[in-house]
């Protein structure tokens, strides 16, 4: 509603309007978080309205322990992203697009009907493609089209799986239903489970993005404006991992077990290979983009441990990665706005000129590396602990993320923040503004608070 009303708001007031709306939306998720009962295993706060009742399609929404935190993350990041938003051309269009983006994210995490789930999953592509294509860097159109085609192709294969499951439920019971809790009761033969699992895997793996479907991500991040990167890394990538938890695990349990080893191997490649690529980058934003893929590999490993520690760790890591990568992209955006370059060789010695920036970057960087007492450690530790029960050797390889992560992140920190000032323009830089601090301080505090007290 607010996104539609935004069309009638004047250009001068649109940012205030955006902050007010996303702030209100975030405040509305607080009673949901507080009223959520962790002891109740069912779906809570459910709502059901008929859409196409003849085919069992309902507007059916609700939350459980997986989605409640991802819902909070979506509304929180949307709010922070608009608060910290720099002045760009066509500001009005951008804020309306961001509000539509929030519609798709919130709708996706609360949908309990497969068709509603799929519609929001697909709709999230449109505002993101528009954000990259309209406000991105020089290769923005190529990046936007690549992002759209990759994700759209995967989703179409996933749609076949959704239709098949609706049909299978109808064959088994005589009634049509696309409600996910109903589908959990389906007992499918093994060969069917494998095919449907692969269909869903096609749509979700591109979104995660899993190796070798990850090649759209560095382009999308490299060309997207800061706000696009923040939302893409913090929330959109979680749609893939959340989809596995919501669809593949409960509906196709045997196939999930069958695919543990291949998915673990792909995740290990993500973890090690993309960390090495991150180390080889000269562009600061690309380092953060590749580190995203590496962290998503640990999330996938934790989930496919199929035990409490692993899954709890991966859900926590989704939240932690959302906060840390959102903050890192915001920090890269800060320096890009001032120097109009992302090449680390141009920075050098920033800390001497921008001490506040250096401190915040340091704290967030420690969260990314997974230093104990920061948010990154908790999820990584639990995810690896869970997978240790499955395969100690694979966990040992995955554990190198902590070392590799430290190598490429500290390398960025050393090159850009310390040493001699290489670029004379750096002496003219101003430290963080109030607007930037308003976006970064809440994220930095969360990195520390949730690291010390993750309950």
Word description of this protein:
This protein has 455 residues and is mostly helical. 72% of the residues lie in helices and 4% in strands. The chain has 20 helices and two strands. The chain has helices at residues 2-5, 14-35, 67-83, 91-110, 114-123, 125-135, 140-173, 180-183, 190-207, 216-223, 226-251, 253-258, 260-280, 284-303, 308-339, 355-369, 375-388, 392-398, 400-417, 434-452, and strands at 44-52, 57-63. Strands 1-2 form a two-stranded antiparallel ribbon. A hairpin with a 4-residue loop joins strand 1 (44-52) and strand 2 (57-63). Helix 2 packs parallel to helix 4 (91-110), helix 5 packs antiparallel against helix 7 and helix 15 packs antiparallel against helix 17 (375-388). The longest helix is centred in the middle third of the chain and has 34 residues, at 140-173. The chain is globular and about 75 Å long. The model has no long low-confidence stretch (mean pLDDT 87).
């Amino acid at each position: 509603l607010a996104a539609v009303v935004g069309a009638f708001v004047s250009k001068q007031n649109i940012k205030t309007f955006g902050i007010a709306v996303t702030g209100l939306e975030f405040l509305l998720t607080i009673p949901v978080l507080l009223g959520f009962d962790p002891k109740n295993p069912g779906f809570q706060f459910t709502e059901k309205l008929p859409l196409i009742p003849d085919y069992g399609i309902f507007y059916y929404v609700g939350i459980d322990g997986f989605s409640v935190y991802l819902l909070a993350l979506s509304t929180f990041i949307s709010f922070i992203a608009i608060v910290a938003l720099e002045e760009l051309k066509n500001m009005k269009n951008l804020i309306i697009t961001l509000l539509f983006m929030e519609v798709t994210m919130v709708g996706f995490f609360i949908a309990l009907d497969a068709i509603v789930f799929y519609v929001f999953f697909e709709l999230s592509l449109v505002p993101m493609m528009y954000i990259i294509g309209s406000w991105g860097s020089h290769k923005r159109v190529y990046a936007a089209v690549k992002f759209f085609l990759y994700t759209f192709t995967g989703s179409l294969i996933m749609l076949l799986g959704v239709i098949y499951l609706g049909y299978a439920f109808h064959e088994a019971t005589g009634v049509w239903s696309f409600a996910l809790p109903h589908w959990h009761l389906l007992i499918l033969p093994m060969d069917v489970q494998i095919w449907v699992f692969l269909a869903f895997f096609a749509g979700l793996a591109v979104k995660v993005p899993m190796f070798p479907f990850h090649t759209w991500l560095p382009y999308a991040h490299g060309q997207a404006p800061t706000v696009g990167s923040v939302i893409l890394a913090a929330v959109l990538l979680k749609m893939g991992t959340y989809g596995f938890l919501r669809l593949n695990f409960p509906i196709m349990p045997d196939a999930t077990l069958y695919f543990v080893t291949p998915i673990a191997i792909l995740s290990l490649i993500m973890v090690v290979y993309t960390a090495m690529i991150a180390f080889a980058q000269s562009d600061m934003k690309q380092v953060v983009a590749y580190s995203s893929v590496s962290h998503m590999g640990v999330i996938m490993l934790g989930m496919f441990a199929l035990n409490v520690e692993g899954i709890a760790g991966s859900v926590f890591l989704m939240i932690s990665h959302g906060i840390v990568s959102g903050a890192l992209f915001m920090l890269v955006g800060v320096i890009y706005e001032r120097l109009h370059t992302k090449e680390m060789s141009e920075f050098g010695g920033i800390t001497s000129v921008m001490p506040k920036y250096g401190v915040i970057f340091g704290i967030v960087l420690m969260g990314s590396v997974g230093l104990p007492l920061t948010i990154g450690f908790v999820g990584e530790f639990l995810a690896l602990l869970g997978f240790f029960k499955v395969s100690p050797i694979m966990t040992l390889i995955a554990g190198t993320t902590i070392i590799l992560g430290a190598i490429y992140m500290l390398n960025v920190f050393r090159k850009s923040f310390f040493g001699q000032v290489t670029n004379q323009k750096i002496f003219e830089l101003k430290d963080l503004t109030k607007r930037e601090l308003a976006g970064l301080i809440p994220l930095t505090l969360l990195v520390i608070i949730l690291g010390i007290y993750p309950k």
